[in-house]
Amino acid sequence: MKKRIILRFKKDTIDKPIVYRLVKDYNLVFNILRANISPRAESLMVMEVEGTEANFKKAVRYLKDLNIDTEPMEQDINRDETRCVHCGLCTSVCAPGALFIRDRKVMKVEFDYTRCVACELCVKVCPVKAMNVSFE
Question: Backbone phi, then psi, for 57, in 5-degree steps?
């Protein structure tokens, strides 16, 4: 089982070894897709978690006991192919490389949805509004 989840930390939970515990105690494999951690404010982490369904459920209970809100990542970035003019501006802000130009001679922007972390930077910079956010 592989899921993308959002963790929202209160400022009093920032000093806990949460990711370590997810690996050690619940045998989960994780990939941090996005993180905004601050010791004086509420923080956020988006991660892809892989493991058994049973271990995932136990881990979510552990997080809830620590007062860490968890939610599935239901936000997705989509591209309207009819609007996209392949200008490439979105590729300059896409840190995970989900938007890229494979062949510079053709200059066609490609989108690998599996690498997208839904940071929404491409949505903000797209001059023709081809990139948009959808919620499942």
Answer: -65, -40
Output the CA angle 47-50-71, nearest 5 degrees: 45
Q: What is the pTM of this model?
A: 0.62
Q: Under CATH, which number does the domain 75-135 receive?
A: 3.30.70.20
pLDDT, tens digit, 9 for 90 and up, residues 112-123: 988 888 888 899
Please state the rounded mean pLDDT for residues 12-41.
86
Domain with CATH 3.30.70.260 in the chain: 2-72
Average pLDDT over the chain, rounded to an integer: 88
Helix (H, G, I), strand (E, B) or coil at 99: strand
Q: Which amino acid is at 108?
A: K
Q: Give dist(CA 7, CA 16) in Å, integer.
A: 13
CATH 3.30.70.20 maps onto the chain at: 75-135
